[in-house]
Structures are given as structure tokens and as C-alpha cells.
Amino acid sequence: MTARAVIAGIGQTEFSKCSGRSPLQLAAEASRAAIVDAGLTPAGIDGSVTFTLDGNDELAVMGCLGIPELRFSSRTRGGGGGACATVQHAAAAVESGQADAVLIWRAFNERSGRRFGQPNPRPPDPALNSYLPYGLDTPAKIYGLTFQRYMHRYGLTNADFGLYSVVARDYAATNPAAWFYERPITLADHQASRWIVEPLLRLLDCCQESDGGVALVVTRADRAPDLPNPPVRIAAAAASQVLGGDEMFNYYHPDLTRFVENETVGRQLWDQARVGPDAIDVAMLYENFSPIVFLQLEALGFCGPGEARDFIADGQIARGGTLPVNTNGGLLGEGYIHGMNNITEAVRQLRGTAANQVQHVDHVLVSAGRSGLILAST
Amino acid sequence: MCPHCRSLDWDTVPSTGRGTIYSWIVSHHPSEDDTDDRVVVLVELDEGVRLVSNLVGVPWTEVRNDQAVEVLFADVDGVVLPQFRLATPGAPR
Question: Which 3 state secondary structure label does DSSP give A61?
Fold first, then answer.
């Protein structure tokens, strides 16, 4: 990818358990903040990207902000796995001339409204007949069935996954925007939290259910002189769907101890950005549940197969480590805005404005599993 | 459609109902009281496909990956579903 698209603006609401306002208002508030942060006005926005799952129609968001016209609108497939694909779509639009400034948003009341962590109250999709009657009615159980094979293959226990959970809460404890702000945990706290899915996941292995909104503005690099904040270069943007895969019930690839979609994303990212894992200063890795951090560290080549446990235990992803991971506290510690808050944290790290700022940050990798980015300073 | 040859001329192949436990979890309702430990298994059938089901007749603390299992059909909440139990030792594989 030619580096002509940049992330120029970021915005967000507070991340809470009860926003007290509509998802549309959250989308509008986050978007307004991102547009201001980019030094633009709503009249300058001519493209939009959000999730297929997002409940806010483009025309409704335009109506809130007073965006006169969109000439490019797209939505990403899947759920949080497509978080980074929003930026891929926006960059593709900007670099092909289909849009000059693309607004990306994701907003929901995922705790006070329909809770992702609970069984869906809607009439079940017949396609779920292979799963729901057997008890696979929550993401923790659905993903747990994959993670258990990884746990078995490498002889891990739930306490090993807790190593990541402690790191995430440590970063969150010093991030005022995080749900776990000023609330660090110990491994003993993790082991005392209640089981969600034996023998894999305790409460503290699970992401938050959050209310909130996040927005980004992607625009042309040649606008950089006019931008109020340092633009962030989109050095690589990739997504991956692999034959035989499934969005959540991803049980049919030959070896479930590998995250093959994420491996494909990684190869694309390294090829596009012409850098390797050693060049990454901070990594933001989507975590619905703590084991998926292990799978991504290995799929992206930050460590070898089965080595994530020791990589984390050695302190590599913690403060001062060689690869700080999820420095905002991640989706476990900060909040769960479907992975989008990990992109805004990557931008802050490159701007030098993160709550837990890492020194000398030139490249940040953001992985949402099935999509990913390498963002770089300009 | 067959993803290898794009044919719509498909057929069925009977399964022996035998396989091994590829992975497993214990399922509880996330917010309602339930007391039974329901074991969800991802069974790798001998025919080479995987199937989500339940393992019955054994406490979850005795479940192990790669254990041999065999199918039975049982009433679950008013619906007949395939369920699995540990395979009878010495049974033909």
C-alpha cells in the first residue's frame, strides 16, 4: 500500500456500564470529537465506514453531525475481527480517490442494552442448530471450545492465561479512561474470580461489556500541514477470511492451536510495511478472552508456537518489556468497543499522548484477529 | 456446492458415530441457576469431520482430550440429539 492515507483524528466517549443515552448519540459524540481532532468540519467528511453489526445508519449519523453528503460508505464483515478492516476500507477509499476524508465509527450500549456476554434473546438463527442445543450460547463458551485445544496442546492451566489478565489490569490501573482504572489485580485475584467456562476462563479472563463509542478520521497525507495533530501513517492494512473458517464457531481448520486467519493477516502486514516483528514498538491485540492474546502473539511471529506463555511470564509484554501489549489495558481492562479503542490507543502511542506512553514509538501493530494494521509515525 | 469441484450433486455418507474428543468445555448458563455440569465436546469423527455435541455419563473432571467416544441418541429438552459417551473398551474402531 502506498502511504497516502493517514489517521488524522480520533474521538471517543467515556466507556461505561450504563451510558444513559442512545447508541446514535454515542456515535455522534465520538464522531464529533474525531472530526474536531482532525481539524475538519462535518462538511469536510465525504466517506464513512462502520461495522455491519453497527446499529447506527449512515443517514442518521449524517443527520446528527450535519454531514451534507457521503460519496463513499462501506461496512466491514463480521464483528470485532473486522475492527482494523474499517481503516483498510477507509484507506482504500482515500487512496483510490473515492473519498477525501472518511469518518469511521462504532458505538453501542453493549452492557446496558443487549449484552454480548449473555445468550441472545432473539429467536435463534436455524444456522445455530448445530451449536445452541448443545449449550454453546455465549461467546465465552463458543471461543472456549477452540482455546481448550491450545491449552491442552501446550499443557497450560487457567493460571497461565491469568498472566495476561494481570498485565492488562496493570496498564488499565494507570489509564483514567479504563474501567479498571486504579484497580490493579494480582494473579491470586485472578484465580479467586469465579469460573465462567471451566477449565479455561474465569471472570477476569473476559473482556468488559461496555457502553461507548469510538471514531476515527482517515484522510489524505497531503493534508498533513493543515492538521492540528500529528497524522499517523497507515503503513499496512489487511484482512483475512480463510476457506473452511467460521466467524465464531471456528472449529474446522485442521489445527485449532493456530489462528490461521491471523497468520495470514500477519504475512500481509509484514509484506506491506516491509518491516518484521522486531520493528514493532507496541502491539495492540484484540482480546475477547485472554487466551486469544497467546494465539495472536504466536500467529504474528512475536514468539514461536507454544511460546506465548513464557513470553508473557518473562515480562516481554508488560511495562518496560520488549513488546508492550495493550497499553490502554485492552478490552479486558479499558473497555470493549469492539476493538476500536485499541486503534485509538495505537494512534495515541504514535502521537506521544498515551496514558501509559512508551518511549520512542515508531511502529504500532494493531491486530483484531481477522484484520490488522501497522501504524507508523510520519 | 462442493468447494473443490463446484458440483451440486451431493450425497450422504453414513458415519460410524465413533471419534475422539478434540476439545471440550463445561457449560453453565451465564446468569440462571443450573446445577448440572454439561460437557460440550468437539468430536473429531473417524470419517474426518468435526461435530459439536455433549459428552454424557462421565463427570467432567474425568474428561480428557483425544479420548475415544461413540454416539448415542437421547432426548434433550424434548428434542432428540446426538450425544456422545466414552467408547466401550475393546469395541471395534
Answer: helix
Q: Where are the domains of chain B?
A: 18-86
The phi and psi torsions of A171 (rounded to 5 degrees) equal -65, -45
Query: Which residues in chain B are contacts of A143 at CB distance < 8 A?
Result: none
| Residues B25, A141: C-beta atoms closer than 8 Å | yes
In this predicted model, what pLDDT tens digit does every residue of A118-171 receive, in sequence order?
Answer: 888 777 788 889 999 999 999 999 999 999 999 999 999 999 999 999 999 999
Superfamily covering domain A5-113+208-377: Thiolase/Chalcone synthase (3.40.47.10)
Report ipTM (2 d.p.).
0.94
DSSP labels, A63-123: HHHT----SEEEEESSSGGGTTHHHHHHHHHHHTTS-SEEEEEEEEETTTSS-TTS---SP
Chain B residues in contact with A146 by the CB 8 A cut-off are 23
**Secondary structure class of A153 (helix, strand, coil):** helix
Cβ contact, residue pair B31, A251, below 8 Å: no
- Orientation of helix A291-299 relative to helix A139-153, angle to 10°: 60
pTM given for the model: 0.96
Closest-CA residue to A287 (of A348, A220, A222, A333): A333
Q: How far apart are CA A31 and CA A24, in angstroms?
A: 10
Asked if the Cβ–Cβ distance from B52 to A256 is below 8 Å, we say no
A256 and B22 Cβ atoms separated by less than 8 Å? yes
Helix axes A23-37, A58-65, angle to 10 degrees: 60
For CA atoms B10, B13, B18, B19, the dihedral sign is negative
Cell of residue A136, nine digits: 454453546
Q: Which chain B residues are closer than 8 Å to A149 by Cβ?
A: 22-23, 42, 65
Tell the CATH topology of B18-86: OB fold (Dihydrolipoamide Acetyltransferase, E2P) (2.40.50)
